[in-house]
Write a structure and sequence with these properties.
Structural class: mainly alpha
Shape: globular
Strand content: under 5%
Protein name: PQ-loop repeat-containing protein
Keywords: Membrane, Transmembrane, Transmembrane helix
Number of strands: 0
Distance between the termini: 43 Å
């Protein structure tokens, strides 16, 4: 049962990255470059913290690889901008990384989980302003894989559940905001 659940986690985590990469490549989906660049850095930090704490790495291994792919496609398609808000968010993320560097892997998981949510603020704002820029199905799959990872976690510990629960809540917010497009037509 655990292996089947792990396969479901990995598959539901991979699907949205393909959806986003294809959508961005076809100019049908817009994503906030700053968010994805910061997520790439932070997913890597969370993954290192989870590894150091001997936590469940399945979800964040896929998240790190997928975030790299989306960030690369955003660069290739030149779909990026950087304004004062992104700089502010980056500053907050830097504070979280400093906490990571000065306090060890346990606090790293907590600080970078907070930073991942801070880094996601520009994406939430973009989705709120223009719901059609986000792929509802991609964020639904992200949310689903995060929930499955919570269910599959071996223990109720910070490295095993906090990043996954946080990701599920964040993705739920973006998913719900992206559904607003049908009401605006």
């Amino acid at each position: 049962m655990k292996i089947l659940l792990l396969i479901c986690i990995i598959v539901t985590a991979i699907i949205p990255y393909f959806q986003l990469c294809i959508g961005i490549a076809k100019d049908k989906v817009k994503q906030n470059f700053a968010t994805w660049l910061l997520w790439l850095i932070l997913d890597s930090v969370v993954l290192m913290g989870i590894i150091a704490q001997h936590g469940d790495i399945a979800l964040f291994s896929v998240f790190t690889a997928g975030t790299f792919a989306v960030t690369a496609v955003l660069i290739i398609k030149q779909q990026f901008s950087w304004k004062w808000f992104e700089t502010l968010v980056t500053g907050l993320v830097v504070v979280c990384i400093i906490i990571y560097l000065t306090s060890g892997p346990y606090m790293a998981v907590i600080a970078t989980t907070v930073a991942l949510n801070i880094a996601g603020i520009p994406q939430i704002v973009l989705t709120y302003k223009d719901p059609k820029t986000a792929s509802a199905s991609a964020y639904f799959f992200f949310m689903s894989s995060s929930i499955l990872a919570v269910i599959n976690a071996p223990a109720w510990t910070v490295p095993d559940r906090l990043p996954q629960i946080s990701a599920a809540i964040f993705c739920l917010i973006v998913f719900l905001l992206s559904l607003r497009r049908s009401k605006e037509k």
